[in-house]
């Protein structure tokens, strides 16, 4: 697998969390503010979600920096209630960040229009917060991080903790106005607040927690820097990507949003807890509300397709005139993450043999036309990869980052994952479940797949298409 596809998995883990950040456009002003104790003791009984009809009129006017999205088939408005049922699908994938925590309320200061403020929105289900603030200053000199871009062989054996940023006190400062003492030693948050709203959870080094813990409140006289904004765009999906280490000096933000880590997303939490959610269409969910069903993953996949200009209202027919595409997602052997000491990893040791056997089977299949697509994702642009996914009736592949693309698959697409004994992780089974896709797995004793087994499983799947 290429480093690009490995990066894709990391980006999509982040985007699962970022998908929740979009709810800031929908937060209402009457949300409750609770203490950590109140949050932990509130009742976990269920509530019926108040959903609005799927119409343009019920969309709020987008923020002036928001990317304009078309009406997506899987779009569902956020619930208008400030609560969602604990551990419901909406709490995991939608508007679950509903408890507002004001850590620094804005003050009226006629001498300055840049007074700082900071608040978080806590999710009891994910045990994490999305935070936002204004009048925020970042000092890159107080953030220690790896340089990045090194040749892979130079960093083999490096521990993961060496790649994570470390925040010194005052790495971030917030404008507290003229009534704040000098020295920048007034902390924004207490240890109790961090434990209550940004807990460490399952990871040792929680960079989001450390970032918020580094914030100091300083008087206006000490709040000096050249203001800028990160309003360039991530070419397709969001705004833009710019690293803190790329700034040569302090930088101020009028409005900053801090999203949870990928480790706090449902995809990661699904490794240790049962997330009982199943994908359905948005119209079905609107007509039959169910806390254990979701259309959010499909909505996210449609956002990806829309960002690359693909039609989102296209429907997959039972018998395409051009035949059924069977996409074989290929993986190239690659140098693993440096902390794995440079071991070359292979998820399917006889991948070429399996592909050749499938190619021979397809050429002799007479019941219907089948096109075997050679999914060499490492040599394809992202747009080409998305196109191959949306055109596929069946997607086959060894466990790996390339299968993350199934979030953009059509509703009737069938997934067949080949899993080596060393990589039995439920990532793609979970995505298929949450998206409502039919999923099959071939579990190997090692990394060698018997071609008759793969062909037999594929043959059974194709019969379900009438082939």
Query: Distance N terminus to C terminus?
Result: 32 Å
Class from secondary-structure proportions: alpha/beta
Principal-axes geometry comes out as: elongated
Number of helical elements: 12
Helix proportion range: 10-25%
Q: Give the strand order, joined by hyphens, for the main sheet.
A: 8-9-7-4-11-10
Largest sheet: 6 strands, mixed
Compute the average pLDDT: 78
- Count of extended strands: 21
Count of the separate structural domains: 2
Show unreliable segments: 11-65, 227-238
Observed structural traits:
467 residues; Rossmann fold; 2 domains; five-stranded parallel beta sheet
Description:
The chain is of the alpha/beta class. Helices cover 24% and strands 18% of the residues. The longest helix has 19 residues, at 3-21. Mean pLDDT is 78; it is low at 11-65 and 227-238.
Quick structural overview:
By secondary structure, the protein is an alpha/beta fold. Helices cover 24% and strands 18% of the residues.
List the helices and strands and how they pair.
Layout: H1 3-21, H2 36-41, H3 89-93, E1 99-104, E2 117-123, E3 128-134, E4 136-138, E5 143-144, E6 166-167, E7 172-175, E8 186-187, H4 191-197, H5 207-213, E9 215-218, E10 226-227, E11 251-253, E12 256-258, H6 266-269, E13 278-279, H7 282-287, E14 293-294, H8 296-307, E15 324-329, E16 334-335, E17 344-345, H9 351-363, E18 370-375, H10 382-390, E19 394-398, E20 414-419, H11 427-435, E21 438-443, H12 451-464
Parallel strand pairs: 7-9, 10-11, 13-14, 15-18, 15-19, 19-20, 20-21
Antiparallel strand pairs: 1-2, 2-3, 3-12, 4-7, 4-11, 5-6, 8-9, 16-17
């Amino acid at each position: 697998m290429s480093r690009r596809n490995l990066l894709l998995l990391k980006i999509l883990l982040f985007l699962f969390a970022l998908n929740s950040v979009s709810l800031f456009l929908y937060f209402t002003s009457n949300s409750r503010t609770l203490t950590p104790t109140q949050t932990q003791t509130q009742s976990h009984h269920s509530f019926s979600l108040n959903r609005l009809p799927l119409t343009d009129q019920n969309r709020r006017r987008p923020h002036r920096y928001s990317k304009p999205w078309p009406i997506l088939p899987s779009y569902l408005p956020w619930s208008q209630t400030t609560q969602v049922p604990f551990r419901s699908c909406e709490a995991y994938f939608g508007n679950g960040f509903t408890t507002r925590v004001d850590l620094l309320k804005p003050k009226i200061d006629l001498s300055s229009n840049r007074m700082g403020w900071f608040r978080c929105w806590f999710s009891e289900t994910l045990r994490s917060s999305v935070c936002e603030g204004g009048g925020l200053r970042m000092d890159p000199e107080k953030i220690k991080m790896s340089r990045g871009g090194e040749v892979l062989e130079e960093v083999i054996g490096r521990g993961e903790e060496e790649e994570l940023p470390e925040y010194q006190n005052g790495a971030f400062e917030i404008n507290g106005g003229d009534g704040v003492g000098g020295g920048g030693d007034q902390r924004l948050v207490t240890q109790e607040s961090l434990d209550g709203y940004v807990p460490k959870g399952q990871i040792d080094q929680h960079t989001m927690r450390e970032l918020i813990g580094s914030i100091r409140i300083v008087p206006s006289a000490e709040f000096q820097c050249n203001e800028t904004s990160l309003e360039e765009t991530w070419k397709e999906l969001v705004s833009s990507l710019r690293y803190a280490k790329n700034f040569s000096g302090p930088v101020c933000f009028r409005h900053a949003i801090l999203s949870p880590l990928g480790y706090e997303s449902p995809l990661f939490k699904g490794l240790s807890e049962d997330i009982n959610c199943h994908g359905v269409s948005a119209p079905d969910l609107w007509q039959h509300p169910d806390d254990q069903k979701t259309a959010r993953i499909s909505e996210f996949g449609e956002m990806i397709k829309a960002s690359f200009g693909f039609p989102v209202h296209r429907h997959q027919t039972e018998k395409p005139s051009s035949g059924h595409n069977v996409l074989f997602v290929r993986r190239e052997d690659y140098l693993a993450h440096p902390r794995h000491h440079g071991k070359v990893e292979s998820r399917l040791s006889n991948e070429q043999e399996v592909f050749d056997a499938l190619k021979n089977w397809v050429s002799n299949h007479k019941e219907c036309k089948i096109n075997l697509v050679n999914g060499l994702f490492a040599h394809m642009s992202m747009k080409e990869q998305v196109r191959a996914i949306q055109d596929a009736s069946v997607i086959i592949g060894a466990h790996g980052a390339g299968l993350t693309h199934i979030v953009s698959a059509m509703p009737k697409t069938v997934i067949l994952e080949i899993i080596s004994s060393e990589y039995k992780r439920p990532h793609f089974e979970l995505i298929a479940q949450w998206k409502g896709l039919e999923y099959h797995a071939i579990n190997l004793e090692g990394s060698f797949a018997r071609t008759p087994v793969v062909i037999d499983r594929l043959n059974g799947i194709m019969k379900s298409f009438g082939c």
